[in-house]
Known about the structure:
Oligomer: heterodimer
Distance between the termini of chain B: 58 Å
Radius of gyration of chain A: 19 Å
Largest sheet of chain B: 10 strands, antiparallel
Shape of chain A: globular
Amino acid sequence: MSRPEPADISQFAAADETVSVRWAAATDVGCRRTVNEDSVFASFPVFVVADGMGGHDAGDIASSLAISAFDELAGGSIGTIAQVEQAVASAMRRVERSDAGTRGGGTTLSGACLVNIDGVAHWLVLNVGDSRTYLLDDGELEQLSVDHSVVQELVDAGRVLPLDARHHPHRNVITKAIGGGASARPDYWIVPVVAGQQLLVCSDGLSGEVDDAEIGRVLRTASSPSEAVRSLVHAALLAGAPDNVSAIVVDVEAVAGAPIGDTGGRVQLEDTVPSVRGLR
Amino acid sequence: MIDELEYVPGDAWAIVTNAGCAVFTRALVAGEARALRELIGDTSTLTELVDRVGAHPYVLALLASDGESMMLLRRRGVPATTGAAMLADAFGDDWHADRVPAGAAVQFGDVTASADEALPLTSGIVRVRSVLAATRAPSDEVHDDDVIDDRSTEGPAPERPVAGAHVSVTIDRDTQASDASEARADQGSVPEASQVVVPDETTVLPAAAGHAAVTAPSSATPDHAAAHDQSSTTGEDHAIVEHTLLSSEAQVHRAADVPEHTLVDPLERAEQPPRTSGIIDSVPGFVRPAAVVNPTEHSEPSRRRRTPAVDDPERAAAAPSAAPASASGQGSSAAATGGWRLTAGAAPVPEPFAAQDAQRDVAPAPRDEVAAEPTALGDHDGFTVTPEQARRLREQLAAEHAAQSSAPHHTPSSEPLATSATPTAAPSGIGDEYAPLVPSVLCPSGHVNPAGLQRCRVCGAPVDRGTLAQRPRPNFAALRLPNGDVVALDRGVVLGRRPRAGRIEQAPIPRLVAVASPNEDISRSHVRVICEDWTVIATDLDSTNGTVLIRHGVAPMRLRANEPTILVFGDVLDLGDGATIRLEPSA
């Protein structure tokens, strides 16, 4: 079954005193589902995806409630860690207390919020479930989030090769979620924002059909976030997209005030100058 | 006087009454909107409008008459234009006020919506995408096109065309500050960051308890006489609302640099967000929920907002049954207290305080991996996990721990962060304090001390052992940085040239502290220092050049990568490049 190209993907831009970004986002029901249970929230400074589960009337509502908790953060300057923590707590409460939540509906939640740490913009990355947040930094694609899935645990335990993870029969079983009977708090990461970085947030409908190598290639070669989103969603649809597909791509254009530690220049993952130090 | 009001249909809510127009995000339901309209009631001034609904979590814009002109309050990025030019950005949670003088018009929300699509609006509740408003010129002449450049108008009203002047309003700390800003603003000079930046002629609004104060110096223009009567001299306090410093600093006080009657140049900004969406997405963006939902969480206290003015009984009845937190809630609270057992009698003295309590020679041998917090899911094989089973496993674990009289350890739970962390304004931008429960005793002055201590760590007085109990851990330790700054250890700290925090699972999100390293000897994420109960632990994060521990009376020792080491007060961590970090007690 072939699907039409995703419709025009709008691109947005926003900035405050600390950082300036462009982004685009899209979501598609995929080739086999009839309902899109993914919810997407891509509005400065919040970029998150929630993949609902528990069936119609539970999953879609759960994911919508989860992202609604971020309404308060959007439209302002970049946030603070405390605000994000509170939004997450609110998301959990909203889902748990809802009708959908009591019926066992749940959702993943993955993405990043721009936060201000000592005047410098940082990504506060969060993840619960098997949606993913990647960072392309200096040409290298890194999956920042860690899947909370049965397959990930098997990979960690060495019982399944990472190569085979995408095809494992249990790849859709997640071990943590918001709602779903027992909410779990997300994992967090904090990463400094650097000009030229690209952040990708996606549901497993994308990462399950398009491998990391292809994702990296698209992000490196696309000329704009909307083109990157279009290409990624298209690739997932071409691959048959059995699940809903959602993607957000954020392009960092400029960052103000690097931390005092940095001496400038492109940042490598580890570029400390080794030196011989005797004990004093 | 608002003479013409029109709207373009959409999803946001506009409530129009005699007072003016209040616009809310689409998150409202009909019942709430009706209740809000009743709440606004027969108010007739902007002041009252702000008073009634200015603090509602979903309000985006307020438009009201102010004498012959209009005042438009916006926030959360709602765009607006006079037709001739865009008004300045109104990002953030604080209100941005613009005066639209007599004879001018303004459109806010989706400013790309054409006036041709606009429908008349008099009073009631409509769903909107954009609102257009115009006032007739005092002399019945319409000066729309000349508005911006017309400086010669002495005119009937001493109003200058300040439609574009961006007024950034923030919370007033106290009335004295307000007076100070009055004096300064009159001279047109740059006020302090947290003060109001205002040209003349902005209404002074009283701050009711718990509401944001939209304050301004009062100028003696006749049409503000009415507003003045309601000024802060009525005796109401300027409420000190819990705004984080970030919010006030984030209000870019560009207007400070702008002569009061000049339009702020929108191109001043580094990036012009494309105005592609309207009020509902007040900042350009892609927000697509899978289903239309109405969050029931209106009454939760938010970090810098006051409780909403609306209490909608209809909603409470109609809302999806707010089932009390299911068994999962009970499960986690059991976990919160289950693993803990207070041991009466002599408890060991926590390491940092060892030197205080007795002279001990502690060899800083690296310890074995500090007992990790028990895995929430227990010892499963990864195959059979449903969230239900996970929950049961967790409860089972908690019960097992409670049954053992093992050494006290901190059971992971999602509760401490949610319940003990109260939002406060923290200059660092990190926010609330993280305070797990720890066994403690009090001295006669009430200082909280570790359970094993004999003498108070703060004042030296003998502690009262009868006060042994669990309490939120106070901030008892800090790191002194090379530049003299002191960083609290409540949440843990990661130090490095450009630190990042790796996967943070159950632990609190640490503070990131950048340390200067001209020779790049220090790794980007070099060392982490955290508190576990009353113990301070340092872990070298596999840094390139290592971390050296310098302790009094002991030979300097390099920490082994990724191995936690317990510290005592006075210990110094040498990161290289002259960066030495000292562990100090805090009161």
